Amino acid sequence: MPPSELISAADIEKFGYCPLSWWLSRGLAPEEGPELVEGEKKHEAASADLKGIEADEAKAREAETGVLYFAIAASIVAIVGVKFLSSESVQVASTLGAIALIWLLAAVYFLYRAETLATQAEKLLSERVILGFAMAAAVIATAAVSFTGVVNQSLAQGFVALALLWLIGASFFLYRSIGSLQAARTTRDRYAVQGDLVYIDSAAEKPKLFVSKKHGLSGRPDAVVMDGEHHIPVELKTGRVPRGPLFSHILQVAAYCFLLEEEYGKPPPYGIIRYGETSFEIEYNEDQKKLVLQKLAEMRTAITKGEAHRNHNRPGKCIHCSRRSGCPERLA
Fold this sequence. Notes:
Layout: E1 7-8, H1 9-17, H2 19-24, H3 34-82, H4 90-116, H5 120-145, H6 153-191, E2 197-200, E3 210-212, E4 217-219, E5 223-227, E6 230-237, H7 247-264, E7 270-275, E8 278-283, H8 286-305, H9 315-319
Parallel strand pairs: 1-4, 6-7
Antiparallel strand pairs: 2-5, 3-4, 5-6, 7-8
């Protein structure tokens, strides 16, 4: 029978830090300390930054669409202008028109490539190539209509001017795309986030709660990113920066990996803990999975007994505990 009470990954983290601190968090002692408020503010700021990545990359995608269509339209309009030439210039015009068409087809090819490439950097490079090919097509067509003997010179020049306006529009959207991608890349570098962001936790907008009904486990990681076909949980820690990942934080990330494995049917090869500007990849394997299940069993045993106790003799842990003032077993 599935457990009746859900235990969160955050509870497992508390239990890993100190079972008594976790027990007191079950409504027996309030959390205290200015660092709590500061931590919540930092977490919300981090969530806003991560959401900013989504917003900037969405703007970049919109601008990329403008680049593609403005560049292609510019080429088409410029080539149409070649048609307004007299028979005396047919041979030259036809040659230049054929060349312009080749450049236009090259731009269309790179348009297709841009839609199928995986990374934003590759797409941006492809779009620059598209713009270059489109500009070349427009310039060649402009050279064609500059020959004498044009049947309707004003109309041809009008098409060329229109093509140039479309190229200016394409350049504007390319500029916007580069700016938005740069803003997103800066934020990604700040949090060392790679891959597509598919999930971001926020106190203001509570996202999906991952639940394992079979094991009575739940949780919301700070973020989830894609590494190929794997969903990778990311946990952001805003307090002091340790020399290495803490055991309780490793437990929490392992619990998130456990939840994502059940949700998507594939175990993440690792999870990420981010302290300030330092990130650690925590391997997720069968041993980590067994450890999570072991801690869940220990916590349910404590709930059944109705008690839990301190499991360490380190005064430093008690000093940094947010429930130390209400703890009957504190060391400091």
